[in-house]
Amino acid sequence: MASDALKSRRRQDYKFQLEYRTRWSDNDMYHHLNNSIYYFLFDSVVNTYLIQHCSLHPPTSPQIGLVVHSHCDYFAPIEFPAVVDLALRVNKLGKSSVTYEIGVFERGQDEVKAVGEFVHVFVDRDGRRPRKEGMGAVLKRGFERIAMDHAKL
Fold first, then answer.
1. Residue-level pLDDT at 3
2. Which of 26, 33, 69, 93 is 20 to 30 A removed from 41 (C-alpha atoms)?
3. Is 0.90 surpassed by the pTM of this model?
4. In whole angstroms, what is the distance from residue 21 CA to residue 107 CA?
5. Rg for the chain (alpha carbons), in Å?
Protein backbone atom coordinates (compact mmCIF):
# COMPACT_ATOMS: atom_id res chain seq x y z
CA MET A 1 0.00 0.00 0.00
CA ALA A 2 1.24 3.48 -0.81
CA SER A 3 2.89 5.30 2.04
CA ASP A 4 0.76 8.43 1.46
CA ALA A 5 -2.44 6.41 1.90
CA LEU A 6 -1.16 4.97 5.17
CA LYS A 7 0.00 8.40 6.41
CA SER A 8 -3.52 9.72 5.91
CA ARG A 9 -5.07 7.16 8.30
CA ARG A 10 -7.24 8.51 11.12
CA ARG A 11 -8.72 6.80 14.16
CA GLN A 12 -12.15 6.60 12.52
CA ASP A 13 -10.64 4.39 9.79
CA TYR A 14 -10.48 1.58 12.35
CA LYS A 15 -13.25 -0.33 14.11
CA PHE A 16 -11.52 -1.44 17.34
CA GLN A 17 -9.21 0.53 19.63
CA LEU A 18 -7.11 -0.28 22.66
CA GLU A 19 -5.21 2.13 24.93
CA TYR A 20 -1.57 1.61 25.91
CA ARG A 21 0.41 3.70 28.38
CA THR A 22 4.08 3.77 27.45
CA ARG A 23 6.71 2.75 29.99
CA TRP A 24 10.15 4.22 30.54
CA SER A 25 11.65 0.91 29.41
CA ASP A 26 9.84 1.21 26.04
CA ASN A 27 12.30 3.93 24.97
CA ASP A 28 15.48 3.15 23.09
CA MET A 29 18.77 5.05 23.29
CA TYR A 30 17.36 7.73 20.96
CA HIS A 31 14.55 8.41 23.49
CA HIS A 32 11.69 7.09 21.38
CA LEU A 33 9.69 3.87 21.36
CA ASN A 34 11.92 1.01 20.30
CA ASN A 35 10.92 -0.74 17.06
CA SER A 36 10.39 -4.01 18.90
CA ILE A 37 7.78 -2.36 21.13
CA TYR A 38 5.58 -1.65 18.10
CA TYR A 39 5.44 -5.39 17.36
CA PHE A 40 4.63 -6.09 21.01
CA LEU A 41 1.76 -3.58 20.68
CA PHE A 42 0.51 -5.18 17.44
CA ASP A 43 0.46 -8.58 19.08
CA SER A 44 -1.35 -7.14 22.11
CA VAL A 45 -4.17 -5.40 20.22
CA VAL A 46 -4.74 -8.38 17.92
CA ASN A 47 -4.82 -10.90 20.76
CA THR A 48 -7.03 -8.67 22.91
CA TYR A 49 -9.51 -8.55 20.05
CA LEU A 50 -9.31 -12.33 19.50
CA ILE A 51 -9.95 -13.04 23.17
CA GLN A 52 -12.70 -10.46 23.69
CA HIS A 53 -14.56 -10.69 20.38
CA CYS A 54 -13.70 -14.02 18.74
CA SER A 55 -13.92 -16.38 21.74
CA LEU A 56 -10.32 -17.45 21.27
CA HIS A 57 -8.59 -18.79 24.38
CA PRO A 58 -4.92 -19.07 23.33
CA PRO A 59 -3.89 -21.76 25.87
CA THR A 60 -6.74 -24.16 25.01
CA SER A 61 -8.49 -23.22 21.73
CA PRO A 62 -8.42 -26.03 19.13
CA GLN A 63 -7.28 -23.53 16.49
CA ILE A 64 -4.41 -21.10 16.92
CA GLY A 65 -3.16 -18.21 14.83
CA LEU A 66 0.39 -18.38 13.51
CA VAL A 67 1.99 -15.13 12.38
CA VAL A 68 3.25 -15.61 8.83
CA HIS A 69 3.94 -11.98 7.95
CA SER A 70 4.36 -8.65 9.68
CA HIS A 71 5.74 -5.24 8.86
CA CYS A 72 5.55 -1.65 10.03
CA ASP A 73 5.74 1.75 8.37
CA TYR A 74 7.00 4.41 10.79
CA PHE A 75 5.98 8.04 10.24
CA ALA A 76 6.81 9.88 13.48
CA PRO A 77 8.34 8.95 16.84
CA ILE A 78 6.57 8.42 20.15
CA GLU A 79 8.41 8.80 23.42
CA PHE A 80 7.72 8.18 27.09
CA PRO A 81 5.50 9.35 28.71
CA ALA A 82 2.67 8.95 26.24
CA VAL A 83 -0.68 7.27 25.91
CA VAL A 84 -1.20 5.61 22.56
CA ASP A 85 -4.34 4.35 20.89
CA LEU A 86 -3.86 1.12 18.99
CA ALA A 87 -6.45 0.98 16.25
CA LEU A 88 -7.30 -2.32 14.54
CA ARG A 89 -9.11 -3.38 11.41
CA VAL A 90 -9.18 -6.37 9.06
CA ASN A 91 -8.08 -5.59 5.50
CA LYS A 92 -8.41 -9.11 4.10
CA LEU A 93 -10.26 -12.16 5.30
CA GLY A 94 -9.47 -15.50 3.72
CA LYS A 95 -10.57 -19.07 4.40
CA SER A 96 -7.86 -19.67 7.02
CA SER A 97 -6.04 -16.35 7.12
CA VAL A 98 -6.65 -12.78 8.18
CA THR A 99 -4.68 -9.62 7.38
CA TYR A 100 -4.89 -6.98 10.09
CA GLU A 101 -3.89 -3.34 9.90
CA ILE A 102 -2.91 -1.53 13.07
CA GLY A 103 -2.71 2.26 13.33
CA VAL A 104 -0.70 3.72 16.22
CA PHE A 105 -1.87 7.14 17.38
CA GLU A 106 -0.58 9.28 20.23
CA ARG A 107 -3.34 10.59 22.49
CA GLY A 108 -4.16 14.21 21.67
CA GLN A 109 -2.69 14.07 18.16
CA ASP A 110 -4.53 13.31 14.93
CA GLU A 111 -1.61 12.10 12.80
CA VAL A 112 -0.87 8.39 12.68
CA LYS A 113 2.60 7.61 14.05
CA ALA A 114 2.96 4.14 12.56
CA VAL A 115 0.89 1.63 10.58
CA GLY A 116 1.55 -2.07 10.87
CA GLU A 117 0.37 -5.18 9.10
CA PHE A 118 0.06 -8.56 10.74
CA VAL A 119 -1.10 -11.79 9.03
CA HIS A 120 -2.38 -14.79 10.95
CA VAL A 121 -3.04 -18.22 9.48
CA PHE A 122 -5.36 -20.26 11.70
CA VAL A 123 -4.30 -23.86 12.08
CA ASP A 124 -5.12 -26.88 14.21
CA ARG A 125 -3.28 -26.64 17.50
CA ASP A 126 -1.90 -30.19 17.25
CA GLY A 127 -1.09 -30.63 13.55
CA ARG A 128 -0.19 -26.99 12.81
CA ARG A 129 -2.02 -27.21 9.46
CA PRO A 130 -5.06 -25.22 8.28
CA ARG A 131 -8.35 -27.08 8.46
CA LYS A 132 -10.09 -28.02 5.20
CA GLU A 133 -13.12 -25.99 6.26
CA GLY A 134 -10.92 -23.04 7.24
CA MET A 135 -11.17 -21.02 10.41
CA GLY A 136 -14.11 -21.52 12.72
CA ALA A 137 -17.39 -19.64 12.27
CA VAL A 138 -17.01 -17.71 15.54
CA LEU A 139 -13.58 -16.43 14.48
CA LYS A 140 -14.85 -15.46 11.05
CA ARG A 141 -17.85 -13.56 12.49
CA GLY A 142 -15.53 -11.69 14.85
CA PHE A 143 -13.29 -10.64 11.97
CA GLU A 144 -16.23 -9.61 9.81
CA ARG A 145 -17.19 -7.05 12.49
CA ILE A 146 -13.95 -5.13 11.96
CA ALA A 147 -13.42 -5.89 8.26
CA MET A 148 -13.14 -2.92 5.93
CA ASP A 149 -14.95 -2.55 2.65
CA HIS A 150 -12.46 -2.86 -0.20
CA ALA A 151 -13.43 0.65 -1.33
CA LYS A 152 -12.08 2.06 1.97
CA LEU A 153 -8.69 0.34 1.86
1. 84
2. 93
3. yes
4. 10
5. 16
